[in-house]
Amino acid sequence: MKLEYDCSRFTIAMELFVAACPGSPLVNRALRFAALEHIDGAGEEYPSSVMEVARRLRVDPDRLSLHARRRGLSLPRAFRWIRFLHGVCLLTEGHRVRTVARKLGFPNVAGWRGFTRRLLGRSPHEFPGMELEGWVRMAIQDVCARAAASGRMDLQPHRHRRRDRDQPDRNQPQV
Questions:
Q1: Whether the Cβ atoms of residue 73 and residue 22 lie closer than 8 Å to each other
Q2: Does residue 45 contact residue 62 with C-beta atoms inside 8 Å?
Q3: pTM value?
Q4: Which of 8, 91, 104, 136 has the most C-beta neighbours closer than 10 Å?
Q5: Residues 122-153: pLDDT tens digits?
Q6: In contact, 5 and 93? CB cutoff 8 Å
Q7: Residue 52: alpha-carbon gap to chain centroid
């Protein structure tokens, strides 16, 4: 079920979200796909799991998860925020909650409400007047704060680190 709406605000919001998330090009590609696949017409069902996104991108799900974890990013949490932000955008465009719930793959409005409560700890109606941009800032803070708290925000994989030539090799005997 494809909904017609002005997706330019959502597209811009998702580009900002993806750019702010710590990740490799592979992780950024997965986030972009999860955010924009409905708009670009790549599929009818909303991607909601790492396994599903990896399958659609034809990459190994373990590799995708590893790239994200090395930078302290939880892809499932980022995907939930993307899904929520998509719903907020649809609601601000004037779509009914029932239509939004169906579009995002929930069986009913109660599914959408439960999803938002699990993500936010409360209903989005308890944040009166918050615009899409405010929700995007909240998503970035949540995802990036978790990455920063893990201490792995800009961590490079160990095997790709270059040893300083002035440092002695640990495997060589010291003289």
A1: yes
A2: no
A3: 0.76
A4: 136
A5: 876 777 678 888 889 999 888 876 666 655 54
A6: yes
A7: 14
5-11 contact pairs (CB < 8 A, 24+):
5/89, 5/90, 5/93, 5/95, 6/93, 7/39, 7/89, 9/89, 9/132, 10/39, 10/85, 10/86, 10/89, 10/132, 11/36, 11/39
The helix/strand count (H/E) of the chain reads as 8, 0
Domains of the chain listed by start with CATH number: 8-156 (1.10.10.60)
Residue 157 region by backbone torsions, left for phi larger than 0, else alpha for psi between -120 and 50, else beta: beta
Place of tokens 């800032």: 137
More confident residue, 10 or 125: 10
Cα separations (Å) of 159 from 83, 151, 155, 156, 162?
A: 34, 18, 12, 9, 8
